[in-house]
Amino acid sequence: MTRENTLLKVAIIGVGKVGRTRLNILEAHPDVRVVALADTNDQIASEFTQYSCYTNYTDLLNNEDVDIVFVATTNKHSALAVIQSLEAGKHVFCEKPPGRSIEDIENIVTAERRFPNRKLQFGFNHRFHYGVMEAKSIIDSQVLGKVLWARGIYGKMGGAEFETCWRSKLDESGGGILLDQGIHMLDLFRYFMGDFNQVQSIVQTMHWDIPMEDNAFALLKTQDNKVAMLHSSATQWKHKFNLEVCMEEGYLNLTGILSSTQSYGDETLVYARKDYDGHSGKPGNPKENKIFFDKDHSWSLEINSFLNAIKTDTPILSGNSEDALKAMQMVFDIYNADK
Amino acid sequence: MKRSMIVGVTNEDVVHPENIKTKLEHTRSVIEKQLADDNDNFTDSDCPACQSTEHSHAFDMHTFHYHQCDSCQSVFMTPRPNIEHLKTYYNDSEYAAFLKSETYKSSMSTFSKQLVRHRADQIVINNQQIENSHGRILLYSPKSSELKTILDTNPKLNISTMPAFSQNKKDHHDTGEFDLIAAFDIFERLIDPISSLKLLFSSLKVGGRLILTLRSGSGFDLLTLWENIDLVPVEHMNLMTVEGISKLMDNCNIEVQEISTPGQLDVQIVERIKTDKDLEINRFASYLINSRDQFTKNEFQQFLQRGLLSSHLYLVGTKK
Predict the structure, then answer these.
(1) Is A90 in a helix, a strand, or coil?
(2) What is the pLDDT of residues B154-173, one digit of tens each?
(3) Nearest to B90 by CA among B223, B200, B235
(4) Which of A26, A189, B172, B298 has most Cβ atoms within 10 angstroms of its Cβ?
């Protein structure tokens, strides 16, 4: 049954930084009405007096008549929150990563199968960045031929509170920078190149006093011999996002990604054709097409995609549970390959 | 909004080769004079971009008169030739014959090969971004058959063409059937770009894309050189600014996805004409041209591209 022209009632579980970002977008969205929040921090009740607030999300699920639940908890709680929300009959949007382990996401997938009429999407918002969407168009159009290899760097500096924040507690997070941020790059590798079946890696704690990796280096190979190289880092003192994709007839480079902090620089996409004879420049230095994107609507576009799937009762096409499971398998394949 | 630019240098002599310049200018001047002699049959025009009736004389070029729109600052010819004049100019003149000659084509081959490949890529990538595209592409008045030849090799595309100056209804495709329409370097030449845009609009499906390139009225070369710019009047009747073409699209119910000015020649054109004519130009431009090295000039051209201040305009819009 489609639900066109009805306001969808929404609850958010986890009102930290990411939960608040989702809240801001949902509050402005014409198709939804936020009705309830849950967070272990009991201060949210005084901060968000316009909503029903809970310190235990199961109370929210038992008491609130909502259509959709956004799960933005720490990794430790996300899998159970998703499963219980599905069991309560809700459509669910869950931030990445989908839990702390393969077992977590497998449990989610099992629950999802029990409720085929519920929509479940995961927050791989990088797919909805304009630069990534443009790159996807170029790759899928095959205007530059088939993909040969990709090289991705995603790095941030950790930060002053890095060693004490929840992300650096293994019990809360389940992994280090690879699980937290590198998973986005792995998802993009798979989005552009397909599934990988061979992995080599070096996963190390090089600098920070934390019980998980702060740097991961990986080589991945697909069944049809495409190769991707990843460096995911928490010691990148100048934040960096860089994804190069080499194709048979040319290449593209995604540099920078727009974020709330603007710390990853301008979002630009460069693409060019290979040029043997130097007609468009010098040999090995072709004339390049450079595209700038000055807006980041990725969060809104991602939510629109989710809401559209609910309203039209169509499958989740991007960021579904298969995407989440495969991305988690890549993360843990990289962890295991270094053992 | 996204903006595109080209990284790398294109030398003007690749785009305007010296060896054909004399013949080109001579044959063109003959047909221009022939048209100018019949200017009693020219028609007045308001701003072809924003349609404002408020405009004032800007400059004259080879006896043709240019006005500037008070509202959007677009520069345009008024009065202007009629369709019969254009048919003569583009089809039945010695100039037209030279444009079709092997001498001309071989002189332009390096540049046109790159350009056609680039435009084919733009069409293919844009088509990929259209929801439920069936690859039905219309090339509006393509300069040559090369673009269609390249695109025809793509099995996902079905390419049609439509001449710009045909009054024959059978040439018109107004059934809303096309996923994408590309009109490269034509809108600056049209007598009535608004009517042409409406025709293209009716040919496009809802959600379909329109790609335009044209010489703009926002370019550093035009704004620096003004009456000394080397326009080709009949081929540059409409020099729409970024603001003007935005209004035109809005008025025609086309949502602009991208406006860019990826031109590479502004600084070179200013330098060439300043030198050739020993011109006095504004202090900044003069300092840039006379005192700064090629690196700075190239960087400045990149700045012009990025800031929508170059004279070659690229637009992608979607039919609402």
Answers:
(1) coil
(2) 999 999 999 887 666 666 66
(3) B235
(4) A189
Residue of B nearest to A286 (CA): B8
Contact A73, A51 (CB under 8 A): no
Give the nearest chain A residue to B117 (CA atoms): A273
A143 chain-B contacts, CB cut-off 8 A: 121, 124-125, 128
pLDDT score at A66: 97
Query: What is d(CA B216, CA B226) in angstroms, rounded to the nearest whole number?
Result: 13
Other CB atoms within a 10 A radius of the CB of residue B57 amount to: 10
For residue B136, pLDDT over 90 is answered with: yes
Task: Tell me the mean pLDDT in the region B193-205.
Answer: 93
| A319 CB-side CA count, 13 A | 27
Asked if A293 lies within 8 A of B2 by C-beta distance, the reply is yes
Encode pLDDT of A174-224 as tens digits.
999 999 999 999 999 999 999 999 999 999 999 999 999 999 999 999 999
B7 touches chain A (CB under 8 A): yes
Distance CA A25, CA B39 (A): 59
CA dist list (Å): A25 to A29, A298, B237: 6, 11, 46
Q: Residue B291 has which token pair?
A: 């005192």
Select the residue of A137, A286, A292 nearest B125 (Cβ to Cβ): A137
Q: B interface mutation test: which of A289, A293, A294, A298 has the most B CBs within 10 A?
A: A289
The rounded distance, in Å, linking the Cα atoms of A210 and A235 is 13
Whole-number mean pLDDT of chain A? 95
What pLDDT does residue A149 have?
98
Whether B169 has its CB under 8 Å from any CB of chain A: the answer is: no
Separation in Å, CA of A66 to nearest CA in chain B = 32
Rounded distance between C-alpha atoms, residue A259 and residue A297, angstroms: 10
Q: Structure pTM?
A: 0.93
Instruction: List chain A residues with CB under 8 Å of B121.
Output: 143, 273
- Please tell me which of the candidates B5, B121, B124 has its beta carbon nearest to residue A290: B5
Let me know: does A337 contact A201? Beta carbons within 8 Å.
yes
Reply yes or no on whether the pLDDT at A3 is more than 60: no
pLDDT range class, residue A4, cuts 50, 70, 90: very low
State the ipTM, two decimals.
Answer: 0.91
Find the range with the poorest average confidence among A137-151, A196-210, A215-229, B3-17. Answer: B3-17
CB B21 within 8 A of CB B230: no
Average pLDDT of chain B, as a whole number: 94
Q: What is the pLDDT of residues B264-277, one digit of tens each?
A: 999 999 999 999 99
What whole-number distance in Å separates Cα of residue B320 and Cα of residue A170? 50
Radius of gyration of chain B (CA): 19
Question: Measured between beta carbons, which residues in chain A are less than 8 angstroms from residue B110?
Answer: 279
First-to-last C-alpha distance (Å) of chain A: 49
Residue count of chain B, please give it: 320
Q: Is A149 within 8 Å of A186 (Cβ atoms)? A: no
Q: Report the alpha-carbon distance of residue B57 to residue B68 in Å, rounded.
A: 6
Long-range own/partner contacts, residues B246-252 (CB < 8 A, 24 or more apart): B247/B49, B247/B50, B247/B72, B248/B48, B248/B49, B248/B50, B248/B51, B248/B193, B248/B194, B248/B197, B249/B315, B249/B317, B251/B50, B251/B51, B251/B194, B252/B194, B252/B197, B252/B198, B252/B201
Q: Which of B229, B245, B218, B13 is nearest to B111 (CA)?
A: B13
Contacts of A280 in chain B (CB under 8 A): 8, 114
Tell me the nearest-neighbour CA distance from B266 into chain A, angstroms: 18
Q: Label residue A279 by pLDDT band (50, 70, 90).
A: low
Which amino acid would we find at residue A290?
A: K
